[in-house]
């Protein structure tokens, strides 16, 4: 039997099951599902159906070799989802895959392109290494037509299975973040002397806490290279997982921080990143301990190079100069 969509006048639809979800839109107030696929129409439903412009409903009789959009979307979600991902019931042929935990999105652009080349299937994802909170969407899988050929879903499933075999994981997953204890050193004579209030500390603390980590200790230092070096060594000896140094990161002659980080023995990966805001960020390592010099924009801009690199470091990645160079593509975030 071929798939058949039979049209029935609303007044004659009592007792019949809807072939697909029906959406109600009230501008400025509501947009959502009014009736779910499979809902059996009652007398009370007829005015509601007429209110959304449905003078007829459709009864769908699925033929061999075809799938309803919701069944297709659910199969796609099951095929694509890996560790750290959850999803619920389909709606209007779409399933949204969400992060079960805080972490980084594991997504491959080539796989997404391959799925979308099949046709009648839409797979939309966030970018690789996007920082996700619990409940954040990582992807949405959708069957575009109401009825889709089962072979197309099987082709997408085969792509996903091949991906699992080749990479040892699902095409989509969420990498967990480590919980680290960071040491924070705020430099600058104006803060050290108490002339102005420290604004770096609260911002940096909030950014780490939002990702499940903490600033375990905060220190202050004047614009004195040797004093900054001494404080960096103190924080290193305390065994913190990360050291963050703020202030004095520009090219002004009296800015001492970059030189002090180098003098403290850090292997500098990059002083400067091709991203705005945050181009004066410094990334280095004291052995295996990452040390970052944070520019002033971290205080007042909501999204900087620090926000890009911090989740990567918390996921256990060691940042390389090549990755820093790649941050320029798509790295302009000024309004």
Number of domains: 3
Counting copies of identical and different chains, the oligomeric state is: single chain
Mean of residue pLDDT values: 91
Q: How does the helix and strand content classify structurally? A: alpha+beta
Tally of contiguous helical segments: 11
Biggest β-sheet: strands ordered side by side in the sheet:
15-14-16-19-18-17
Percent in strands: 25-35%
Please give the number of β-strands.
19
**Biggest β-sheet description:** 6 strands, mixed
Please give a structural write-up:
The structure is a single chain. The protein folds into three domains: 4-61, Molybdopterin biosynthesis moea protein, domain 2 (Alpha-Beta Complex), CATH 3.90.105; 66-173, Aldehyde Oxidoreductase, domain 3 (Alpha-Beta Complex), CATH 3.90.1170; 181-326, Molybdenum Cofactor Biosythetic Enzyme, Chain A (3-Layer(aba) Sandwich), CATH 3.40.980.10. The chain is elongated and about 85 Å long. It has a six-stranded mixed β-sheet with strand order 15-14-16-19-18-17, with helices on both faces. Strands 6-7-11-9 form a four-stranded antiparallel β-sheet. Strands 10-8-13 form a three-stranded antiparallel β-sheet. A hairpin with a 2-residue loop joins strand 18 and strand 19. The mean pLDDT is 91. Helix content is 30%, strand content 29%. It is built from eleven helices and 19 strands. The chain is α+β, with helices and mostly antiparallel strands and 335 residues long.
């Amino acid at each position: 039997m071929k798939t058949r969509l039979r049209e029935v006048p609303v007044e004659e639809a009592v007792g019949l099951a809807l072939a697909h979800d029906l959406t109600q839109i009230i501008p400025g107030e509501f947009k959502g599902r009014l009736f779910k696929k499979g809902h059996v129409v009652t007398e009370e439903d007829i005015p509601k159906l007429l209110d959304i412009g449905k003078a007829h409903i459709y009864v769908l009789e699925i033929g061999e070799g075809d799938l309803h959009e919701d069944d297709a979307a659910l199969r796609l979600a099951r095929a694509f989802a890996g560790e750290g991902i959850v999803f619920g019931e389909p709606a209007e042929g779409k399933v949204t895959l969400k992060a079960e935990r805080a972490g980084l999105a594991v997504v491959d652009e080539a796989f997404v392109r391959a799925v979308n080349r099949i046709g009648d299937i839409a797979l939309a994802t966030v970018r690789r290494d996007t920082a996700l909170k619990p409940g954040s969407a990582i992807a949405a899988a959708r069957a575009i037509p109401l009825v889709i050929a089962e072979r197309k879903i099987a082709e997408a499933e085969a792509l996903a299975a091949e991906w699992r075999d080749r990479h040892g994981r699902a095409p989509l997953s969420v990498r967990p973040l480590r919980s680290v204890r960071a040491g924070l050193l705020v430099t600058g004579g104006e803060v050290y002397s108490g002339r102005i209030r420290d604004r770096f500390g609260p911002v940096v603390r909030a950014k780490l806490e939002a990702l499940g980590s903490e600033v375990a200790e905060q220190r202050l230092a004047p614009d004195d290279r040797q004093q900054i070096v001494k404080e960096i060594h103190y924080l290193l000896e305390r065994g913190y997982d990360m050291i963050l140094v703020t202030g004095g990161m520009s090219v002004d002659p009296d800015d001492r921080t970059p030189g002090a980080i180098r003098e403290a023995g850090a292997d500098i990966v990059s002083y400067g990143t091709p991203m705005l805001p945050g181009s004066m960020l410094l990334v280095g390592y004291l052995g295996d301990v990452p040390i970052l010099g944070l520019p002033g924009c971290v205080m007042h801009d909501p999204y900087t190079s620090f926000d890009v690199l911090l989740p990567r470091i918390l996921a256990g990645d060691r940042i390389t100069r090549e990755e820093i160079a790649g941050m320029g593509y798509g790295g302009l975030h000024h309004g």
